[in-house]
Amino acid sequence: MDAAKQTILCVDDELVNLKVLDAVLSPRGYQVIMTQNPREVSSIVEKKPVDLILLDVMMPEMDGYTVCRHIKENPQTRHIPVVMITVLSSKEDRIKGIDAGADDFITKPFDQELVLARVRMLLKMKSLNDRLNHGYHNIIRLTSFGEEILKDFSAKDFRFFEILSGVVKQVLRQSGDIQDNPLIVIVGTSHKKHWEWYQFESAFNELYQTRLNIRIQESLALPAPGDSQVMFFNEGESGESRLRDLVRMLESESLLSVRNGIGYLSPELCVFSLNYGRDVTVYDASVLKSLVMQSLFLKSLSNQILETEDALEHTVRALVRASEANDEDKGNHVIRVGAFSALLAETLGMPGSFVRSIWLQAQMHDVGMVRIPAQILRKAGTLSDTEKAVIRKHPLFGAEIIGSHPRFRMARSIALTHHERWDGSGYPHNLKGEKIPIEGRIVCLADHYDSMRRTRSYKPAMSHEQAVHVILEGDESCRPDHFDPRILKAFRLALDRFASLFRRLEDPPAVRRS
Ligand SMILES: [Fe+2]
Ligand SMILES: [Fe+2]
Question: Are 475 and 330 within one domain?
Fold first, then answer.
């Protein structure tokens, strides 16, 4: 069936009447389907796209009013205009027809010109109505697609091409809407002036993507950076000649035959949406443009978020380095504590966002040390009780320095609670069990393990095996019940990864003192 032809279903129990209608309509380019059986109408309109029904009223099997009512009661078919062709012309008969949902009436014997004029008018209305419906469905489909993207949006995992492919899938012709969507979309993206071209087609609700070996970018007069251009053309119309020239190039390079299309051009992205089932309009061009803009907006948003995240990491590191000014044992301690904490969080099955946060925010666990006098921090011998009490203030100082910004809620909590112990023997608040926030419990173990592995002015470094033994079995200063049993279990599961992470992030020799 020719998709561009409009289809008219003629229903009449008399074959001769059907033949007359066919003789009037077929030569005018309409696709005519005929049936003498009114009971068949529902199944025909459900299976085939019908644009108009010409319906006899007086039929022995089922009258036209009943047929019309069935069509208008079905949400799938109620939009199809129905014209009743009848010898009945009384007011009551007309009212009965209107009540059944008929859109128009023609009295038998009919005048050919009048039939054609009514058919043209109703088909035009149907086509406008279809366009409106399609636009409405397009808006709903695109809105829910946009919602899906935003729901799963993550700047770190953002892949522009994947988003663009998703958009293309929304645009491409699906089964059912044979008129209003393109058959092919060609996308060109440029990265550092290197262009890659892809052709997208959809079949059986699957998206097929093929890399194209074309070089049309050399002939494209692209707009200036920051600008974009949208144009459309229909075969046989004096439309946008530049797009037509481009399409000719695409045809010669990709063996396509193009009847109509829309082009979106910008210095880093070109999209050609081709071969719609009907002529394209400025409306189609603006739909394509807004979809492309939506993808570009997300790309720019993700770049900006990544840049901000990068700046944040940089600032955290700067703060940590500044806080180590009084500590002669610099090196990678804070970086390793961040990495071990993330490893424990991951092993515990915490969400990805928590793992990423603890990786960065655990690095600030000891920022409060900046307020501890250098002579205490650098003292080689044993600390007096007073000096120990001063050091034990660093969690409070840390929480104060970090402050109350929501973005650093976890960092503040870690700084404050990383010396609390599961059995309640820690400081500064002697918190016990789950009263200690999970991030504090995680960093407590990560910090212990790394502190034992480090060489300090007052102690040698332990091997991995020694440190594991102390944490799992205990010694004079450390007992397993200092730690949350769940976190100890995760530690046991991740022992090998602890050892290899330590090797990878080990301090440079100048910092490691024997
Ligand atoms: Fe600490
Ligand atoms: Fe530490």
Answer: yes
Are 351 and 490 in a shared domain? yes
User: Beta strand 52-56 with 7-11: parallel, antiparallel or unpaired?
Assistant: parallel
Considering every ligand atom shown, identify the ligand nearest to the alpha carbon of residue 368 and give its number: 1
Mean pLDDT score, 468-485: 94
CA of 58 to the centre of ligand 1 (A): 94
Q: Is residue 308 part of a domain?
A: no
Within this chain, do residues 360 and 496 fall inside the same structural domain, yes or no? yes
Edge-to-edge strand ranges of the sheet holding 206-212: 206-212, 194-203, 182-191, 269-276, 260-265, 229-234
Calculate how far, in angstroms, residue 336's C-alpha sits from the geometric centre of ligand 1. 14
In the three-class reduction of DSSP (H, G, I as helix; E, B as strand; rest coil), residue 11 is classed as: strand
- Is residue 176 scored above 80 in pLDDT? no
Residues with CB under 5 A from ligand 2 (ion): 366, 447
CA 246 – ligand 1 centroid, Å: 66
pTM of this structure: 0.62
Q: Assess contact for 126 and 81: CB atoms under 8 A.
A: yes
CATH number, domain containing residue 121 = 3.40.50.2300
More confident residue, 93 or 407: 407
- Is residue 158 located within the same domain as residue 125? no
Ligand with minimal distance to 334 CA = 2
Cα of 365 vs centre of ligand 2, distance in Å, is 7
pLDDT at 398 over 70: yes
* Structural domains of the chain, count: 3
pLDDT at res. 66: 94
Mean of the per-residue pLDDT values for the chain?
87
Same domain (yes/no): 384, 277: no
Residue in the structure block whose two tokens are 């014209």: 83
| Residue-range definition of the domain harbouring residue 388 | 324-504
Ligand nearest to the backbone CA of 447: 2
Helices (H), 199-272: 241-254
pLDDT in tens, 424-436: 999 999 999 999 9
409 in a structural domain: yes
